[in-house]
Structure formats: structure tokens, C-alpha cells
Amino acid sequence: MDQNIYLSNYELEEAIEHYFSKININRGKEVIKTEDSYGRITALPVYSKISSPFYNSSAMDGIAVDSRKTIGANEKNHIVLEEGKDYLVVDTGDPIPKEYDSVIMVEDLIKLDDGKVAIYKSAASYQNIRPLGEDIVENSLIVPSGHKIRPVDIGAILAGGVNEIEVYTKPIIGIIPTGTELVEPGVELKTGDIIDFNSRTFAAQVFEYGGIAKRYAIVSDDYEKIKDTVDKAVSQCDIVLINAGSSAGREDYTSKVVKELGQVFIHGVAIKPGKPVVLGSIEDKPVIGIPGYPVSAYVVMELFVKRIIEKYCGEKEKEHKKVKAILSRRIMSSLKYLEFVRMKLGKVEDKLIGTPLSRGAGTTMSLVRADGILEIPQNLEGIEAGEEVEISLLKEEKDIENTIVCIGSHDPIIDIISDLIHMRNDDYYLSSAHVGSMGGIMALKKGEAHIAPVHLLDMESGEYNIPYIKKYLKDKDIFLIKCVKRIQGIMVPKGNPHGITSIKDISEKNLKFVNRQRGAGTRLLLDYNLKKLNIDPSEIKGYDREEFTHLQVAAAVENNDADCGLGIYSAAKMMGLDFIPVANEEYDIAIPSKFLEKPIINEFINLIKSDEFKEKLDELGGYDYREIGEIIRP
Amino acid sequence: MDQNIYLSNYELEEAIEHYFSKININRGKEVIKTEDSYGRITALPVYSKISSPFYNSSAMDGIAVDSRKTIGANEKNHIVLEEGKDYLVVDTGDPIPKEYDSVIMVEDLIKLDDGKVAIYKSAASYQNIRPLGEDIVENSLIVPSGHKIRPVDIGAILAGGVNEIEVYTKPIIGIIPTGTELVEPGVELKTGDIIDFNSRTFAAQVFEYGGIAKRYAIVSDDYEKIKDTVDKAVSQCDIVLINAGSSAGREDYTSKVVKELGQVFIHGVAIKPGKPVVLGSIEDKPVIGIPGYPVSAYVVMELFVKRIIEKYCGEKEKEHKKVKAILSRRIMSSLKYLEFVRMKLGKVEDKLIGTPLSRGAGTTMSLVRADGILEIPQNLEGIEAGEEVEISLLKEEKDIENTIVCIGSHDPIIDIISDLIHMRNDDYYLSSAHVGSMGGIMALKKGEAHIAPVHLLDMESGEYNIPYIKKYLKDKDIFLIKCVKRIQGIMVPKGNPHGITSIKDISEKNLKFVNRQRGAGTRLLLDYNLKKLNIDPSEIKGYDREEFTHLQVAAAVENNDADCGLGIYSAAKMMGLDFIPVANEEYDIAIPSKFLEKPIINEFINLIKSDEFKEKLDELGGYDYREIGEIIRP
Fold first, then answer.
1. Per-residue pLDDT reduced to its tens digit, A67-92
2. First to last CA, chain B
3. Looking at A264, A279, A313, which one is the last position of a domain?
């Protein structure tokens, strides 16, 4: 618990300026074959060594002639020319010997016998001749320095007789994963292990930025071992990245190691996530300590490492495209940090709607799901719902526009639909946010979603979904696409060790329960049953522990982290759990009528009605799809 | 001269539809390591195998406790906890043993002696705990099929315990260069040789499109040899490209070979350039005959080969961004073809101005210089100057906006400026069109250029440039940036074999001359001298042969294609020619006053005044730069 170092809180721009003023970018140069230069950046301008073409050549199939011998030819007065004496047959591209100065097209010739032809119009000097140097003249500039080589450049440079060019070398980036808890992917995992996926993500990022990644073996949290590896990496690479241990905790050695071997210029930048970054150098080479949380690491890679690599390669900073979007919900932010919020975007009607994803720095999936990044300036405490914000895109705008925005209750079938819709039509996507059925209703109300999967049991009538739509969405014209009936029940470990037979047992046997979040249909189902049984929620141990999906609840039970939870049959089956049925419920899709006309929604309906999809439902188990795809007006 | 095959004239869309209905895209699949999957396309959806984290872990540095033991703690009533008995020290990420259910942050602890701590508020269940599956739950979808893997996906997939994934294979594209005239880059060239640069351009394009290129050795124009190579390539590759010989000339064997070994579906598409394309298949594999002219080849690669490779890889069609521009000059087009015109773009004031580049299918440099492509539909005979057109961008829009558009007279120093301006500032570019001094004046008049290099001798006054600006640009506020005085003279082969001493000798000795185009300052200089000498242009042999730059004239003389030409000293020196001085002239830069304020123009002026640039002028020779960079108002 020794924490004696305090991090600085440099503003981002200040940190970048300060750090880049301290480090040297020693760009290397190398001579490579022109044909291997795709994507490389020229270190020198490329001038042609020869002309292309380097001789006069025919621009047509026809005959090469001396134009003076054709003077006077016209429709009435044909002139006859003799092969070998007066003309030479040439194809396009053939060189024109010095004695000829013009080409007559084959179409303009009257063929006679004995290799003779007649012509009926005179030929102008240099007609149909591709002059020497028409494309490239000797000693002229083909591409300037600092130019990124494209395929067409390779052609022109070779045509200009230049077979080797000087380009900037790609920097080698050493990546050192540190942490006693880290294990290689693929090994048998035990509690406390963390798979070292960060170093692999960095390697792909380094490749994307234009560098060459060199990954070192995992180093345990041992000061001397880390120091030795950093020392070796500095001697073998142009830039060194040390992953994790960049903060100021008791086993955070990065800053100390860099200080001992070189210099730390900045430790801590006012960004979130990504604050505990170490910006230093050893032997004049940039050395960066990168935080361990994957999202923090991503932000630091994008803000610092990308810039350095691009400078090394001579590449220009590639910026993400920016779009305007309407914020669907309020985002609070600290005045202490410039914050990077991962956003989900959806084009609902004509508006691009931006919804913040999980802000946890540990959630790799928030990066996978993100369509863009919203920056909240340090001097703002937050942004209100409904405000227009600027978002840096991580995906193609067109793909976002071709995405069904699905917000509501979770079921594994949503994952399947999301995969199938894209497989059936390359242009289409479905993105889903699992916020529970009531969350889905609210999203439709605010115009943030195209569709909302719901399974809401009305406590009064015992009827599903329709009463909620009538109550909460009465001002909207909402239809219901019937989906599946599914079985909800109590998920328990294989063999049902506590012998649970009904909800009553949970409180009676004082078992550890794991619940779903407020607004989830499954939670309402629990509450409905507790009320019927006259059990107070406080009697359920773990009632307050909230998970967001059926699979999360099932995973908690599978890992003996809870004795039981309420959820659907397919989730229990996937996780190999036993299952005590409690109720059949109706899981349907609410949709505003105006979206029913959209081709992508049409494709969605065809998909859920397809045999392909029904086969998948049978595989999952516990679904009744007899009414699937029927559209009803509540 | 046997041309017995006539090409078809399929409309492009029809050709694409017909061809793609005839060929099979047999996409291969392979399993690769997740960490090597950057940029690949998933062939199956990727579901997690484990949860991440797969145990409950601490979200903070602190102590793990049983929350029940903390009940009742407050500011007045501290509760003392003992290490080992009541708590466990945990760092962020450490697993929480089953006996604990809550984490208290280190900041909220009062350290006592003997491993004891006091707390002053109670801990809630699951507080500061990162629950199992918070990021990824076992069996949940990480990325769907048809997804292109990004670095963040690699992290998430590995975190989800998936170390190998199934992706589409990259297709192997065989490239067969054919032509007796082809030689490898780097060999000693003789007249009639053509460097095989096309196959290298194709290889880079194939890489860019996502395929693997396999280049075969050059095959001479021999039917059997071509057939054998195609046969071999079909057995080794997924797609085969045969370069040149795709038309219907006497040595165009592609179509016949493909017909013998397989099927030709289309031979000839109504596009320009690119018409003589062969679209066929052999043993169910696409085989394409690609025209020999590099621009035709480029168009066919982009329209057909790119599409096929993308379908193989499971990639979506990447489209070029489109912008609107004003056409600077009229373009005529044939009703027979959909035409692809390479365009130079420039942002002059607020308008994006598009100017067509050379339309010759043989000019690789027009592709290198092009900022975009304009498609002229088949049903249009042309587009008028001033009309708004849509252009597919080949460069970043931002780079185009940061480009000085320089239209006018040519001098090798313009190439040097174009290189240096970008070297001195990454963001800046200069693009130049060599249309002669009068062309430059007209470009300024029409608002198509920022600057115009001119050297225009007024026949009456003998004064340079200013009389022309006053006459032609009197309605514009034009300044002159003084540039260089340079020596014009007669360029003759080394040793001056014809003993030329003055312009008079050209006609008197009946020598072969090579002239510059109408509107070029150098041509005006010749005319001025001929007039003074009372020589009629018809007395100069080759007066009608027009070249567009000093270097082109020098190259014609160097290659004994002409006995002499008029041009500047530096061009003669570059080409190793002898030089007979004729006149000193003033080569200056005309510029509208409103552009003088622009930072990029400021940089331009600083550059030409710099020692770095003056050194380059000294190296070239023949330049007097005493007034360089001075700005005068005519």
C-alpha cells in the first residue's frame, strides 16, 4: 500500500507539445526496389532517368511513312506506296525509324497487291506518332519527397527508368507486457490470471500506424527484470512501449525504471481514460508507459504512439472523419480531465443519434461496439441530452446509416440476428444495446431506436407488452412484430445442488441470488412472482446485485458466484446450467409504424421468418416461434 | 494487318452484370491465429469462449472485505479490521476470494499498527468490484461474420478466450505480362523496348485490393507460349490477368487463348480508356485480358479486378469520396463510350476548379498527377466549361485545399519548388500545369490558378511580362513576384555538329527544328527573332512540331530526333547538350493581389528567397536571381 508518487495532470495539448519538444525523431532512410515500395514514403524526390517512351513510336496500327511522299494525295488522286521502299507496317507502340515522320492508320489504307497500298489523303508530319517523352521526360519530377507511394506511382517511376528509390524506414516498436498476473493466450486459466491481449492489440495498432512491432515475452512485476528488458528493447528498437505499471501503485515500476535508465518528462496527463501515462526517453529514444486497462491503453496509443510512429515514417497525421450527432442522454464529466467517450451512433429518421457506451476503462467490447469517440473538453462538467455534438468516426458513415438501431431487452437471438442480417446482405447491420425492456420503450419514445425488443408483463392483466405500449407510447404509432415465446426460469448449477423447485425456495433456503437491472422484463417477472408469493425483496439475498443480460446472470451462477438467478432457458443451456421453468413469456419487437416501410426492416422481418433463423432457434432451445414475423397493432 | 475480330461495345453496367452472373466467386476459408488477423474478414461470427474478467476482481487498490462486517461503521463509530481475518489487501485487477464481497479503497482507510485498519463508513455489497463477465460474457457475440478485424477486435477476441478464428482466404492473382517488346526494369534499353512496369503496378493494386499477387515472367507474343503460361497460372491461382494483347490487332492473342482454354463472355466494353478488355473464365476461374496502355489498364483494374478481389475477400466495395467542382474548360466526349477523365483539382478562392489532364491512355504521369476522376456518361457529347461536375477523389480533400495551383510556363525550377514546399511544410503542396505563359495568363483571368509563371516578351517595347498583364488582366488586381532572369538559346547536340551560331543558321542550313506550342513564351521569343531577321516560319523545318516543355525539346535534340530547338540553359545542361545563347529573359510569377495574403503563398515566397533554393538554382545553372521574391505592381 505504498503510494508515494503523485501523478501530474498536464493538459493534453501541453503534454504533447512538451513531450515532442523533448524527444528526437531520428528518421532512418533506406533504398528499396521501386516495385516493393507500395505505401512507403519517399525520402527524396524521384526524378526520371530516361524519357518514356524513349523513342518516337506509333500511336496506331498502320504504316509509317515519310510525309513528304504523301503530299498531293486526295480522293481523286490516290498515291500508291510500296512496302519496304515507301512504308513500314507498324503496330501501336512500335518505334518509328528516323526515315519516317508520320503514321497512316490501317483504316485509311486501300490494300493493293504486291505489298502496295493506296492512300487518298496526305499525311501531316508527326501525325499518329507518340513522341519521345510524351509521358515522362528525362530528368523531370515524378513524385516529390514525402510522398506516399501508390500503385500508379510505381508504374510511372519504373517507366522513368528508376528501379530503386530512397524511402523512410519503418520504425521498430518494442512492446513489453509486464505483470505477474499476465498469461499467454491459450494457456489453462486459473483465478487471478489475465490473458495478455493488450500487447497483441498494440502490435496490430503499430502495424496500422506504419511501424514494425516487436513483442517481448511477458515480464513479471520485478523491478530488475523489467529494467533489463527495457534496456534490451531500447538497444533493439526505435520506440519502446511498456504496458501496465504506468500508474503510481505499489507494483507500478514503469516510471521508476524509465527514470533510472533515462528521463521521464511527464507522468500523468489530464485525460480520461489514459491518465496514468509515462512519457519518457532512454538513449534519445521515446519510451512510453501505457496503462493496463485496455481502453486507457487504446487512448494513449491513439494520442501519443500513433503520432510518434507517423512522424518516424514521414506520414501525415490521419484524422478520423467527424460528424454531428444529437446526444441521446446526458453525459457528466469531470473538470479534471479531457474525456474520451465511446459512442454508439444510429441514424433514426434523419438524425444521427449518439449514445454513450460503457465508460469503464476495462471494457474492450465498448471499443469493439463504438461507432465513434466524443471528446468532452476539460472545462465542461457534462453535456445535456439533445445537444449537438461532434463525433470522430471509427466506422464508415454509410455503414452507420445502414444499421438497425435495436435498444431494449436482451436475448441471445439478438446476437444471431445481428450476425445473420449482415451475412444475408453485405450492406446491412444491426447494433443492439441491452438496457432492458423499459429502456427500449423509452428509446422509442425519444426517437433513439428503430426497434425495441420487449417482454413486459403487466401485473394487473397478466398480459405481455401491449399494455406497456399503450401506456408509455400512446402518442406514437407503434406496431408489434411478434417474435418468440420463451421460457423463463431459475438457473441453477448443474445437478441443482440446493434442490430448488420454485422461487419460494430462494428466500426460504437463504440462497445467494443474482438479479437483473431495474427496467428489465426479467426483473419485473421476479417482482410479479414475489408479490404473488408475498415475499419482500429484502428477503432475497443478492436482490440488489444487478446484471444486464441473461448470459451475465448465467455466468455468475456457472462460476458459483451466486446460487441462482432468473433467466431464459437458452442462456442456461449455453452455460450448461440446470433450469427450473417459472413462466412462458412473450418476447416481441416494438417498432414505430414509419419504420415498417424501410427495406432494412423488411429484410429483418424476412430474416426472422426464415428457416435458417428458425433452425438456430431450435439449436438454442426453449423458443416457440409459431407467430414469428406477424405484425400486430396494439 | 489481319484484324478479323470486332470488339463488342457492352455498356459498363451491363458488362459488369453479365460477367458477374457468369463467374463463380469460390471464396476460400482458413483458420488463423487471432493475433495475426488484422485486416482479415471473418468467415464465421466470433463468440466468446470465456467471460472477461472470468472472476470477480477488484476495481481499486484497497482491501477486500465481507460487507456484513462493516455494517454500522460511521464517522463516530470506527470499525477496526484485521488483516488475514477480516480483510485481504488487493490491487486493481486482483481476484476477490469467495469469502469477501466488497472492496474499500485505500483512500478510505485509517492505517493502524499490527496490520489493522479502521474504517469510518460501511461498505455496500459488490462495491468497487469488477464483476465476472463485466466486459465479455461467455458465449456472447464479439464480432459478426463478414467483419474486418481491427486492433481493438483482436484484443476483445483474445480476452474472450478465442485464439484462432476463421477468415476468408486472400485470393491469389496471377499476372502474366505478354509482349515481345517487353523487358525487365533495369536492363540496357534499345529502341523498341518497353519496360514492363504494368505488371508491377498491377501487383501493387492487387495488394491494395486485398489479394496476393503472383507475377509470371514476361511471355513473348507467341500464341503457344501464352497459352501454356495461362494454363499454368489457372492451375496455380484464383484469378488470372493477362496484360496486353487484349485488343483485336494482329498479335493480340488474349481473347483467342482464353476462348481455347475456357470461355470469353465479353470482349469490348463501352468505356474509354479501357475498351479492349477481355472478360472470360477458365476452369471456373475469372481470367481477364487487360489492355496494354497503362491508363486503360488502370481503369480496367479499378472497374473489374478490384470488384472481383473484394468479393473473394469478403470486403465491401470501397468507393472513392466524391466532390463537386467547376469545370475549367470544355471537355468533348464520344457518344460511344463512358469516359473516365483524369482531373487536376484546385481550390482557388472558394471554388474547387477541375481541369482535365492529358487524355492519352499511355500517360502514366496523368494518373500520378490526377486528383480525381470525372466520369462522362455515354449519352453526353461533352461538358461545357463552368458546369458543376462530380469528381471521385484520388487524394485527400484537405491536401487539395492546401495546394498552390500553378498554371503557366514551364521551367525545371517549378519541379524543385514543388518538392521543396512540401519538404519544408508537410501540409503544403504545389501542383503545376505546363500550358505556356499565355495559358497561365488565361488561367488567372478565369480564376483557375493561384499563380502563373510567365516570360512574355512584348514585341513592341521589348519589355517582359508587364505589358501582357496590363493588356489581358486589366480588370484584375495582379502583382508580379520577381523570380529569375534566365538564358534562352539554341540547344544543339554535344559538339554542335551543324556548327550553329545563331537562329539564322536554322533556316539557312535547312536544319530539323523542334518548336514549342502556341502561347509558350519561348515560341514568342522565336517569332520575335524570326520577325527581326525577316525569316518566314515556313522556312523553318519542324516549325509545326510542338512540344510542351523545355525538357521535351531538349530530349528530342538529345535523341537526334531534331537538330536543334530553342530553350533554356538549365534544360540543355541537364540533357548534356550544347547551347548557343540567344536572349536573357525575365521569368516571373503573376499573382492576384488577394492571394498574397495566404499563408501558403507566404511560404512560397520565403522558399524562393531561401538560400536552399538559390543553391539549387546555382546547381542547375543559367539563372540570375538577384531580384527573386520582390513583389511589384505592374
1. 889 988 999 999 999 999 999 999 88
2. 60
3. A313
Q: How confident is the model at residue A5 (pLDDT cuts 50, 70, 90)?
A: low
Q: Which of B63, B92, B107, B140 is the best residue to mutate to test the A interface, defined by the most A CB atoms within 10 Å of its own CB? A: B140
- Stated as kind and residue range, the H or E segment containing B151 is helix B151-159
Q: Are residues B300 and B151 in the same domain?
A: no
Question: What total of structural domains would you count in chain B?
Answer: 5
Cell of B124: 455496500
Please indicate if any CB of chain B lies within 8 Å of the CB of A502: no
Residues A73 and A109 in one domain: yes
Q: Is B189 exposed, middle or buried (0-12, 13-18, 19+ CB in 10 A)?
A: middle
Torsional sign, CA B488, B492, B494, B499: negative
Q: What is the pLDDT of residues A90-99, one digit of tens each?
A: 988 899 998 8
Contacts of A95 in chain B (CB under 8 A): 191-192
Question: Distance between CA A182 and CA B33 in Å, rounded?
Answer: 19
CATH value at residue A118: 2.170.190.11
Clarify whether residues B146 and B250 are in a common domain.
no
Backbone φ and ψ for B167, nearest 5 degrees, come out as: -125, 165
Structural domain including B69 reads: 57-130
A288, A242 Cβ separation under 8 angstroms: yes
pLDDT digits (tens, 9 = 90+) for B215-228: 999 999 999 999 99
Whether A419 has its CB under 8 Å from any CB of chain B: the answer is: yes
Task: Flag whether pLDDT at A2 surpasses 50.
Answer: no
Is residue A439 located within the same domain as residue A478? yes
- How does DSSP assign A149-183, residue by residue? P-HHHHHHHHHTT--EEEEEPPPEEEEEEB-TTEE
The predicted model gives A356-369 an average pLDDT of 88
ipTM of model over 0.95: no
Tell me which residue of B535, B534, B478 sits closest to B511, measured CA to CA. B535
Q: Collect the ranges in chain B with pLDDT lower than 50.
A: 1-4
Strand partners, A353: A326, A346
Partners of residue A590 on adjacent β-strands: A452, A480
Q: Residue A508 CB: number of other CB atoms within 10 A?
A: 12
- Residue A401 touches partner B, C-beta closer than 8 Å: no
Query: Is residue A479 included in any domain, yes or no?
Result: yes
**A424 touching chain B per CB within 8 A:** no
From A204, A298, A560, residue closest to B38, measured CB to CB: A204
- Chain A residues inside the 8 Å CB shell of B415: 45, 47, 140-141
